[in-house]
Records
---
Amino acid sequence: MDFVTYDVADDVATLTISRPQALNALNSQVLSDLGMALDQAEADQARCLLITGAGRAFVAGADITEMAAMTPRQAEAFSRHGSAIFRRLEKLPIPSVAAVNGFALGGGCELAMSCDIRLASEKAVFGQPEVGLGVTAGFGGTQRLTRLVAPGVANELLFSGGRMNADRAFQVGLVNAVYPVDELLAAAVKLATSIALQSPVAVRATKQAVTLGRQTDIDTALAIESAQFASCFGTQDQVEGMGAFMEKRPPAPFTGC
């Protein structure tokens, strides 16, 4: 991978988009590298995924120099490529945490929104500026933003091409918390590690219930939850977790079995 670095520690896989000379802009190669890194995280059976950017940007957007000369057919293929990678990230069986260290514009905002949890530094900036380039968002921005924040807030960003600072992103619920720049990564690692320490069986079942349930009606969603709840019983994690609770002791490390 030329533009994504990959590391695993304490069952947390960290993906760092590293194309700082272009503010980590997403071209076709970066997207392919990101897909390879997701493959590796699954192969390593990581329990949580952390995504951040190198330098002063998370991801400043898709690569305009690559897009400028695209035909409509090429543009659709590029959009589908990015959307497929981001959807795969969204559907990973493990939780994902975005540590948004700087600019998260266009494709960068869309990448962050594909993660389950978003933390931001005080210097983070969010936005979907595509209309100022004569195009729409192409990697899910028109769909995820309207699902994560109030419709009027989403529409304002999408229609005006404006930007949102970290404090405003926190106020509207786009990010969970805002940290000083030099504290962001440590906070993200702490959160990801706390997730990795929980029962992998239960965390995966919980994510499945959340992901599938929000795409359907409440009655179907409750049935999905019941099925995921039942799937945990009889596992080593469930036996150990409940046994430790009844015996008033900390559980042994969960095995994910």
---
Amino acid sequence: MNQMRIGKFISTCRKEKGLTQARLAEQLGITDRAVSKWENGRSIPDAGIMLELTEILGVSVNELLTGEKIEKEDYKEMAENNLLELKKREEVSNKALLDMEVVIGVVGTVSFLGFILLAGLADMSNLLRGISIGVGCCIFAVTMYYALKIEREAGYYECADCHHRYVPDMRVVVMAPHMGRTRKMRCPKCGNRNWHKKVLSKD
């Protein structure tokens, strides 16, 4: 997936439709700076607005991701290649988020233990000792919340029975028994309660 080619294709299609960057951005509800970044090859459109963008430009999603008009006989092959590339990008992005979850969890835990040790070992008043424990607990609670939020949103959970992949509610993730990133939850598709493992992509 060539970002420069996609960017030039978006620029060409936009001009063919008689749209400025500002006008296209307005129709999509984004900034013209985002459109400029696409056209300069610094990023590609998010999946959430890709369908709307292709409708405005009068092209297919596969043509947009390929960066050129596709002949009918090549369409299926191009579609498969684009789907594989999108899956790969999703997996890389989700892995990076899950790595960040680990860093946040470690920082929160170390900070918590540091404040607890400070309260227990340092020569300080009971008030300061209480404040130290309170700060440690607050840091731990906040970092654990954001770590769980990242885990929930990065990738999907897969049911061990029907292999349905989904993103559960935050409340379910927090309350579910777990071993690492594998959580015991009820599948929204088959209804069975079992251990659901974390996976990086939808399929």
